[in-house]
Amino acid sequence: MNSNRFTTGLLLNLKEELQKIVNDGLDFSALEEETPSHDMADSAEATGRKEKAALELNIAQDKMKDSQKALARIKAGTYGTCLECGGEISEKRLRALPWAKFCIGCQEVVNSEKVTVTRQPHFA
Asked: Can you give the C-alpha Rg of the chain in angstroms?
């Protein structure tokens, strides 16, 4: 199927780009080697850079994993099938998010469950 060939190429390119980010773009050793500053503003700025780099690395790693899983679903012949309900994931959604594993309806349920979980009060 031509759309699977297109998607496979898209996912492989994305995987390559994300691998570069993980390998080259986020060098924690350079951040760790920053000279400690006694200035609170400089220290806060350095901490912010480290936290941003860690967040970007986590996002890139998650997207890379999702891309690898989507490639595995293509090989298995299950790509485009919702992992929750078994229904078809629309081609429009797959073109926008080639690693999508849920149809729109199931993704909305998953998102609302995450919001509900994160909004529960934390009692000490």
From this structure: 19
Give φ, ψ of 37 to 5 degrees. Answer: -110, 145
Residue 69 contacts residue 101 (beta carbons within 8 Å): yes
**Tokens 């994931």, residue located:** 89
Helix (H) or strand (E) run with residue 19 in it: helix 2-20
The structure's pTM equals: 0.63
Please tell me the predicted confidence (pLDDT) of residue 4. 65
- Looking at residue 21, its pLDDT comes to 65
Strand partners, 81: 88
Contact yes or no for 34/93 (Cβ under 8 A): no
Give the residues of the chain that fall short of pLDDT 50.
1-2, 122-124
Tokens 């806060």 -> residue = 44
Do the beta carbons of residue 26 and residue 51 sit within 8 Å? no
- For residue 124, the one-letter residue type is A
Helix, strand, or coil here: 20?
A: helix
**Arithmetic mean of pLDDT over the chain:** 77
